[in-house]
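User: Fatty acid desaturase. Structure?
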Amino acid sequence: MTGLQDRLTPEQVEEFGRELDELRQRIVDDLGEDDVAYIKRIIKTQRGLEAAGRALLFAGFFPPAWLAGVGALSLSKILDNMEIGHNVMHGQYDWTRDPALSSQRFEWDNVAPAENWRHSHNYIHHTYTNILDKDRDVGYGILRIDPDQKWHPYYLGNPVYAVLTALFFQWGVMLHDLEVDRLVKGERTWSEFADVRARIVRKAAQQLGKDYVLFPLLTGPLAPLTLAGNASANLARNLWAFAVIFCGHFPSDVESFTEEETERESRGQWYLRQILGSANLTGGPLFHVLTGNLSHQIEHHLFPDIPSRRYPMIAPQVRAICAKYGLPYHTGPLHKQLFSVAKKIVRLALPGSGRAADPEPTTLERDRDLKAA
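Assistant: Predicted structure:
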């Protein structure tokens, strides 16, 4: 837990917010044909990979063809969910007025219905980022992922729940909208979720029918291999999405907040909370595309409705603004951030505050130590 209001003076917060507003406006003013061409190119690539993957599974009796089919289909599902679906449904391309890029019309290759996801993610998560008891993405109602979550013997299973969440990530996203933990506690009733349930049933039936009935049957005697290939592609997408999303939200130096300290929050304070509550991943251009540019989680949390291809371009400017105000800019390679998340999950399974006696230094502190050396 951080003292959010102690980071900057009121005057600094106002100036900090103004600088980020100006950065955002420069991006908005520059949006145009290059952004549209980019997302359409990604969509074309995704569709090509899906077609290639499905076709290769028709030759699944030949192991290299089966493996290639699974690989192509996995990449297709990753692109569909990460760089296309997640970003289009954020409204990043609503300004184009293209029905194919409309946040309200887009549906992704995932068992979680787009309409449910837009509420729980776009509204709840991005409004209340890392606010305990408000942002349901903190632990997803399953995990103890923050030391200020009260410990219960249930959390002894934290590592097991995390592994299951990774394996069945799309199903976890789907069930997230039902708020099962609150249903169990009696805080909500099933009748309140009638519409949510109806959308879940329809979408799950469509996805299961497509991947585990229709396409396997189309390959005739190879149906078992095709079913296994589709399941493998879904598993690959689940594991990748879990790793990227958890590394953007839950490494050791990412901070959480209380409802009290975020009351009557100004625009500048909201920006500040996004930076303190997010972490980036380092990597090359292809890596960033495959993460849906959520490897730039800080920039995404600051500007969730800006096309994701812009995040790598503005990241140096955001980092410079953070350095100017003495703020941390959490970033690191995937393996290190994932290890940090894993340590936290295991540590917080045990009773106690879960806070390390000597917290890991923030990226800013590491940078200063290196310069001093």
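The first helix runs from residue 10 to 30. The radius of gyration is 21 Å.
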